[in-house]
Amino acid sequence: MIYISEQKFDQLKIEHVAEGNYTVISINRPDRLNALQTETLRQISEALQPLIVDEKTRCVVLRGTKDFTKKPAFSAGADLSAFGNEDLDQSLIRHHDEAMNRRHIYYDLIDRFPKPLIAAVDGFALGGGLELVLVCDIIIATKRSSFGFPEIQRGIFAANGGTQRMIKSIGKFKVKEMMFFGEPITAQQMYDYGVISFLTDADNFENVIKEKATKLGNSATNSLYIIKKCVDYGSQVPLNVGLQFELFGYGINSRSEDVMEGVNAFLEKRKPEFKGR
Prior knowledge:
The protein is α/β, with parallel strands linked by helices. 41% of the residues lie in helices and 15% in strands. It has two domains: 12-217, Alpha-Beta Complex (2-enoyl-CoA Hydratase, Chain A, domain 1), CATH 3.90.226.10; 221-267. It has eleven helices and ten strands. Strands 1-2-3-5-7-10 form a six-stranded mixed sheet, sandwiched between helices. The longest helix is centred in the middle third of the chain and has 19 residues, at 93-111.
């Protein structure tokens, strides 16, 4: 596996699960309920970069640390005590714009990660934490988790892509309700809205993470890569253009070794052993 320096990513814990072909990136700020600084987002985006070409990592799980000190949390939102980089001046409006621009860059880099990215949510996923969930592909959550955009209570709003990404998931009226009132939404409600992929009890959370990550980690990686591209980018263009994405993707995927393995396994009535190639 490509080496990732723990020293470089001091706000994260990173673990590779060899038998499942996946890597777990845990936000490790338990004393702050994993509140997100710009630095936290930078570390997440940079930790993901070597995993793009790491053949032993075919899926990534993004979560809050299991070793929480107060309450369980994926992330309780932005760390309002940290403005941004030292080169920015809070008294200048244009520097506030640049601070948010930098955060957007990191959210976008995480959003563009080409392999399956699972958000494993136990506890709070609020504000910037929920916006981080929205750039993932699959969401696993415990029933005790809560989601929301409480920013209005502080006179601000979800400006890390929340107004735009959330609307694509639940529609403008529900988004306005969440953001106008700032009240938390239960995990069950989010599951009913179709945002959460798998809802589980807290005591079964780790088992579900392992099961789903291993399933993706042992799947046909090239197919997953192309599916993600087609869905993410095809949904932003007219249908006839999206269908062309699909056709090109099918042609590229046909050269994959895993395609032959999948077809042969079907014909031989056995379980396929995909190599991610």
